[in-house]
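Sequence, please.
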C-alpha cells in the first residue's frame, strides 16, 4: 500500500505553496469521502519511495464545530473512510510560531507520527525572529526541519526526514509534557471507554476534542448518541465555559512556560502601519471600494478582448467547418451543437482565470482577510458571511466564476446560501436584453428634466437585482438554509508579496476543474438545446421558400434579399420546432406577465445564455440570428408588433415586466451547471431554478398586472 502523508497547518502558513512544490504537476482535485468539500492530493517522491500527499484544510485547532472544520480531525484520525496517515507534516509559520504550536500540541497529543516543517524561515530571518530550535525539539520530541516554500530551502532534508519517520514511526511520536486539571482528567477517563477502537493516545485526543466540540446547536457529524449523552452528563457537573477554559488554559500555560521565540519589537511595524489605514472606519472603506472597483472592472471589462477573441475563433472555426461539410443535419450538429457548445464553455475561461488570479493575489498578500473583516458586520445582518461579498460582487460580471468563488467560504451552509443568491446579481449577459428592451420601448427624454429616462432604467435594474439578492439572502438564511451562523474567526496575517507561482497554480487548478466538470454539463445542455431549436425537420411551411429562392436567383436578386428570405424560412422553422412548440405551450402561463408565444420562444432559447434571447428574437421575427441589441430592424419589428385586435404587443409596461423577469429568473444553464458542480448536488441546482423562476414570475406578474390596474397598460 502506498504510504499516506497528511499536510496540515493553520491558514496562511504557506501550506498550499508547500503542497504545490512537493507534488508539482502530480496533484489532483477530489472530494473528501462522504463530504462535498474539495481536497487536493498528489504524489510526492521521497529518496527511496513514493507517497500520497493529502492537503488537509487549514485549521487553527482540532476543536471545531462546523462540518468543514472537522475535516482536519477526520483526515488526521483516519475517520474519513480511509486509512489514517502514516505521517503528518505540520507546516508552521516561523513568523507566527507560538500561535501555530497550539495545533501542533493537539497533533502530538494524539500520538500521530509527525514532522514539524518551519516555513517562511527566510522571512523570519529578515524580520529578526530568533527561534530556539534545540528547546523546541526538546519540548515536543518531534523532528524539525527549517524550510521556505518561496526559495525551496530545506525541501530535500524534509523528504529524508519524512521517509525516516515512515520507516520508524516512533521517531515522530512526540512528548506530551503538559497536564490538565483534575476535572478534565476525570472527564477524559469517562469518555475513554467510548473510544475503544482507537489507541490510548488517539482515544484521549478524541475525548478532549469531544469535550471542546460537542455542544448545543453544533453541526458535528459522526458523533454517536452515547458520546453526546455522556458529554451532557459531564457538562451538568462541569459547565462548558469552565471546562473549555481549563483545557485551553493548560495548553497555553505550557507554551508560555519557557520562551521559544525572541521577536524584535518592530516586527509588525509595516503591517500595523498599513492596517492603520486599511482597517480605518472611513479610509479603510475608501480603499476597499477602490480595490473592489478594480476587481469588478477587470471582470467586467478587461476580459472582454479575450472573450471576443474566443467567440471570433469559434465563429471562424464554425464557418470553416460549415464550408467544408455538405449542408445538412450532420453539418449543423457539428457547427451549432458541438463547436458552439465547446465555445459556450471556453468563453468563460477569461473571467474565471482572471477572477482566481486576482483573488489569489489579494489572498496571498493578506488583504482578503481585511476585506472579510470590513464587510462582515453588514453581511452578518443579512445572514451572510463576510467572505461572501467578493463572490456577490463578481456576480455582476458573470455568475459562473462567482459561484466558483464561494469556495473561499469555510461553512457549507454559507457557501450554499451565497450560491443561491449570486445568480440574482445582474450579470453582463443580462445587459443586451436590457439594452434591447429599453431602446425599443422607452422614450429618450429626461427624468426630472436632467436625468435620461433610459439611463435611469438601466441603473434601476441593477439596483433592483442587488436589493432582491440581499432580501433573498435574508429570507433563505432564515428558512431553507436556516442554521447556526459560523462567526468570522480568522487571523489577520502580515502583509506579504504574493507568491506568483502559487497563485498561477491555484488559478489553473480551478480552471481545469471547471472545464472537466461544469463544462461537460454545459456542452451536453447546449447540444440538447440545439436539438430543441432544430427539430423536427419535416414541417409544413406556409410558403415554398426553395422555389422563391430559385426565382429570385434567376431574377438576379441581391445577396441581402436572399439572406432575408433565408431568415424568414429559419424563423418559420423555429416556430414549428420543439422549442417553438414549447414557447406556444407556455403562453397561457406567461400571458399574465404580458408575454406572447414569441417571447416564450425567446425565453426557451435564452436558457443557453441570457444574451441568446436577442438572436432568438431575431430569428422569430425573420431578421436572422446575426443581430445584436443595437439592431434597428429588430427594434422596429418589436415596436410595430400588434395583437389580432390591433393593440400593441410591446408596451413599456411589457418591457418593464420582461426586464424584471430576466433580472430574477434562472435563464442560464451554465450557472446551474456550476451550482451543481460546487454543491455536488442536482437537488440544489434544481431548487435554484425553481425558486428563481417562481420569484421572477411573481415579480413580473405584480409589475404587469399592477401597472394595468394603475392604467399604465
Amino acid at each position: 500500500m502506498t504510504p499516506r502523508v497528511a499536510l496540515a497547518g493553520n491558514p496562511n502558513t504557506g501550506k498550499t505553496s508547500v503542497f504545490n512544490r512537493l507534488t508539482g504537476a502530480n496533484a489532483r482535485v477530489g472530494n473528501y469521502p462522504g463530504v462535498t468539500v474539495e481536497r487536493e492530493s498528489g504524489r510526492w517522491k521521497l529518496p527511496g519511495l513514493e507517497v500520497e500527499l493529502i492537503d488537509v484544510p487549514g485549521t487553527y485547532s482540532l476543536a471545531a464545530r462546523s462540518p468543514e472544520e472537522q475535516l482536519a480531525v477526520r483526515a488526521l484520525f483516519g475517520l474519513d473512510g480511509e486509512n489514517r496517515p502514516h505521517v503528518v507534516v505540520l507546516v508552521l509559520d516561523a513568523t507566527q510560531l507560538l500561535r501555530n504550536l497550539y495545533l501542533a500540541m493537539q497533533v502530538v497529543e494524539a500520538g500521530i507520527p509527525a514532522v514539524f516543517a518551519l516555513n517562511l524561515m527566510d522571512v523570519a530571518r529578515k524580520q529578526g525572529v530568533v527561534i530556539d530550535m534545540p528547546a523546541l525539539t526538546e519540548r515536543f520530541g518531534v523532528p524539525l526541519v527549517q524550510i521556505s516554500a518561496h526559495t525551496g530551502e530545506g525541501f530535500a532534508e524534509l523528504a529524508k526526514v519524512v521517509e525516516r519517520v515512515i520507516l520508524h514511526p516512533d521517531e515522530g511520536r512526540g512528548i506530551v509534557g503538559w497536564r490538565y486539571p483534575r476535572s478534565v482528567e476525570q472527564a477524559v477517563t469517562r469518555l475513554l471507554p467510548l473510544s475503544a477502537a482507537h489507541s490510548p493516545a488517539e482515544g484521549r485526543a478524541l475525548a478532549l476534542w469531544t469535550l471542546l466540540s460537542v455542544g448545543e446547536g453544533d453541526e458535528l457529524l459522526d458523533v454517536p448518541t452515547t458520546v453526546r449523552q455522556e458529554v451532557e452528563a459531564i457538562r451538568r457537573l462541569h459547565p462548558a465555559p469552565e471546562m473549555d477554559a481549563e483545557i485551553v488554559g493548560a495548553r497555553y500555560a505550557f507554551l508560555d512556560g519557557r520562551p521559544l521565540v525572541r521577536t524584535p519589537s518592530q516586527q509588525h511595524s509595516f503591517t500595523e502601519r498599513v492596517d492603520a489605514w486599511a482597517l480605518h472606519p472611513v479610509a479603510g472603506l475608501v480603499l476597499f471600494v477602490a480595490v473592489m472597483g478594480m476587481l469588478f472592472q477587470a471582470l467586467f471589462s478587461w476580459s472582454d478582448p479575450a472573450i471576443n477573441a474566443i467567440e471570433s475563433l469559434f465563429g471562424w472555426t464554425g464557418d470553416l467547418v460549415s464550408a467544408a461539410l455538405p449542408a445538412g443535419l450532420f453539418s449543423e450538429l457539428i457547427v451549432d451543437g458541438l463547436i458552439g457548445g465547446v465555445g459556450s464553455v471556453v468563453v468563460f475561461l477569461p473571467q474565471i482565470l482572471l477572477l482566481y488570479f486576482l483573488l489569489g493575489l489579494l489572498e496571498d498578500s493578506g488583504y482578503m482577510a481585511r476585506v472579510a473583516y470590513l464587510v462582515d458586520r453588514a453581511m452578518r445582518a443579512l445572514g451572510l458571511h463576510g467572505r461572501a461579498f467578493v463572490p456577490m460582487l463578481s456576480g455582476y460580471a458573470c455568475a459562473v466564476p462567482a459561484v466558483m468563488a464561494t469556495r473561499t467560504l469555510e461553512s457549507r451552509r454559507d457557501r450554499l446560501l451565497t450560491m443561491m443568491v449570486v445568480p440574482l446579481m445582474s450579470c453582463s449577459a443580462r445587459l443586451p436584453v436590457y439594452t434591447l428592451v429599453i431602446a425599443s420601448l422607452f422614450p429618450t427624454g429626461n427624468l426630472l428634466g436632467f436625468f435620461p429616462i433610459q439611463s435611469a432604467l438601466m441603473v434601476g435594474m441593477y439596483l433592483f437585482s442587488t436589493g432582491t439578492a440581499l432580501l433573498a439572502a435574508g429570507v433563505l438564511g432564515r428558512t431553507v438554509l436556516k442554521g447556526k451562523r459560523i462567526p468570522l474567526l480568522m487571523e489577520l496575517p502580515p502583509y506579504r508579496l504574493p507568491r506568483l507561482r502559487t497563485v498561477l497554480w491555484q488559478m489553473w487548478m480551478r480552471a481545469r476543474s471547471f472545464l472537466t466538470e461544469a463544462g461537460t454539463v454545459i456542452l451536453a445542455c447546449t447540444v440538447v438545446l440545439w436539438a430543441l431549436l432544430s427539430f423536427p425537420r419535416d414541417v409544413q411551411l406556409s410558403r415554398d421558400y426553395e422555389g422563391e429562392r430559385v426565382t429570385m436567383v434567376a431574377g438576379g436578386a441581391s445577396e441581402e434579399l436572399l439572406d432575408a428570405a433565408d431568415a424568414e424560412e429559419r424563423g418559420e422553422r423555429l416556430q414549428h420546432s420543439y422549442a417553438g412548440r414549447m414557447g406556444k405551450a407556455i403562453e397561457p402561463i406567461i400571458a399574465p406577465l404580458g408575454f406572447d408565444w414569441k417571447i416564450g420562444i425567446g425565453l426557451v432559447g435564452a436558457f443557453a445564455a441570457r444574451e441568446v434571447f436577442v438572436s432568438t428574437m431575431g430569428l422569430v421575427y425573420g431578421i436572422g440570428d446575426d443581430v445584436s441589441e443595437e439592431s434597428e430592424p429588430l427594434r422596429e419589428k418589436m415596436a410595430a408588433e400588434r395583437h389580432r385586435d390591433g393593440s400593441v404587443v410591446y408596451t413599456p409596461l411589457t418591457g418593464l415586466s420582461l426586464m424584471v423577469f430576466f433580472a430574477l429568473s434562472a435563464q442560464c444553464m451554465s450557472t446551474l451547471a456550476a451550482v451543481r458542480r460546487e454543491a455536488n448536488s442536482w437537488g440544489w441546482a434544481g431548487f435554484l431554478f425553481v425558486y428563481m423562476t417562481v420569484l421572477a414570475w411573481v415579480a413580473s406578474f405584480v409589475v404587469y398586472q399592477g401597472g394595468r390596474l394603475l392604467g399604465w397598460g
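The longest helix spans residues 500-534.
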